Amino acid sequence: MNTSKLRNHKLIPDFNPSNSLGVQEREMMMQLFGPQDRLDYPTEILKMANGCEVEKYIIPDEDKEKVLDALYPFFDTPSLDADMLDLHTQRTFKVRDYIVTREGNGNFLVTPYYAEAGGTVLDWVTPDNDGSCKNLKGSPIISVGIVRS
C-alpha cells in the first residue's frame, strides 16, 4: 500500500505509515474532524497485529458515555449496552467495550478488535438478531451514516 499521501498529510504529520490497519477510516475521520486535542486520560501502548504500536486511552467506566458522545461521528449515539458488529472481524461487541486511540493528532473511536483488524467506528453496524450481518457478508457495501458537524 502506498502511504506517501498519509505520511505527508498536513493533518496527521506524525502518523505511523507502517500501520496499515484501518488506514482509510482514519484518513476519512481526519478529513471530517481535523486535528484534535489530546483527551485528559492516561494512555498505554496497544500492539497492533502488524507489529505497530499505538496509544490507547485508559478511560474510566464512569466517563465512557461522555467520551462516546463526544467522539461518535453520527447522529443517534448508541447506548453503551447496544450490540454492534465489527465489519472487519464479523464479531459482535458491546458499545461500552469501545477503544479510543491517539494516532498522529487525532483521537480515533475504534472497535475492541482494532488491534487485530483495524475496525474503526465507521465499521460498526447493528447486527442481525443472530449476531451476524448476513446481508453484508461477501458484499462491498459500505455503511453510511449522517455525520454530525
Provide the structure class: alpha+beta
Q: Which blocks of ≥5 consecutive residues have pLDDT under 50?
A: 1-18, 135-149
Distance between the termini: 30 Å
Strand order of the largest sheet: 1-2-5-6
Mean residue pLDDT:
78
Radius of gyration, taken over Cα atoms and rounded to an integer in Å: 15 Å
Approximate helicity band: 10-25%
Question: How many H/I helices?
Answer: 4
Large-scale geometry:
globular
Bin the strand percentage.
Answer: 15-25%
Largest sheet: 4 strands, antiparallel
Order of helices and strands: HHEEHEEEEHE
> How many beta-strand elements?
7
Report on the structure:
The chain has about 150 residues and is of the alpha+beta class. It is built from four helices and seven strands; from the N terminus they run ααββαββββαβ. It has helices at about 5, 25-35, 65-70, 115, and strands at about 45, 55, 85, 90-95, 100-105, 105-110, 125. Strands 1-2-5-6 form a four-stranded antiparallel β-sheet. It has a three-stranded antiparallel β-sheet with strand order 4-3-7, with no helix packed on it. Strand 1 (about 45) and strand 2 (about 55) form a beta hairpin. The radius of gyration is 15 Å and the shape is globular. It starts with a helix and ends in a 24-residue tail after the last strand. Mean pLDDT is about 80; it is low at about 1-20 and about 135-149.
